């Protein structure tokens, strides 16, 4: 199969699960003998733009005409079987869908977050779940609250893009790949076309390192941000420390807006180690040495890559009991689920997972089995190709029937 992958890479200064998923899927397809090309832009390149070029970036968020022209020419020249769209913010824009329609190539889109119904894509505001914009075509609440980067001005391009491109997305994509059933349910309630929303979990490569003993630390691995539950974890850990601790230290790996706060909190303590940003090999080793991996997100995670990475290494997880975590983690079997936003519940689960080594080993073994059955590369490849074939067949049926749905978009003639 001939696949063209479209992706706007996130800035390298911040770890990105989306970048990782895209790279892994490209490698998986190529390893299976498929021809894969990548059409991309990089957010890192914005820094090298001239001042006028930087000022113009927000204008490209709703629509980048140069991308439409360039991609359409590439598609006509290469004639791939399918285009797989990932992130288009901020430099690609939904113009990529118009390019696919121009060239008559079916498009599949992985929805890594909730940007189809929420401008910042988090369904969260001020550290709490928020669905004010779900079902609202204009997304005015997001602008009013300045939901993207706490700025009304920065939120406007995202809200405008959501408004003017809604029908283009919903009519120009043959198959939307939701990364969890929880995410799909939110999008269906928001009015997205249910018949084209499929669940395809992310896969995780089989790690080089798996846990062989009981583990030597608890691990938080991810972005240091409010939505990821870092402050909640610090509060829970302080309560555990005040009651005598759990016998192993907490290791925090990552970077983000709360880094200075985490560094100050960990300073001078022997029960906490902040280790900064790990590369892939270091992440795998840290996971394999864990008693458990902690994922206390306060926002409704659309997936949770670190949870599955822990499962792959035979390590149980303590995760918030909402969003995708509920379908990834079987409470008491492959890990423990705590009450979302409840530091006492989180502390109780951490204490329990660390205090019962025999049960911890059984839980880790069950987690590994869950990974093999649902999140291995073989499973991921099979599901990906299945969705590609469905998209290609759908486009062929439209062509035979004279359906111009994908090219109509939202009536925009740009």
TrEMBL record:
Q: Where does the record place the Glycosyltransferase subfamily 4-like N-terminal domain?
A: 18-204
InterPro entries, sorted: Glyco_trans_1, Glyco_trans_4-like_N, Glycosyltransferase_grp1
Give the compositionally biased regions (Basic and acidic residues): 402-414
**Signal peptide region:** none
Q: Which Pfam families match?
A: Glyco_transf_4, Glycos_transf_1
Superkingdom classification of source: Bacteria
The alphabetical list of record keywords is: Glycosyltransferase, Transferase
Return the protein name: Glycosyltransferase
Q: What positions does the domain Glycosyl transferase family occupy?
A: 213-369
What are the start and end residues of every segment in region (Disordered)?
395-414
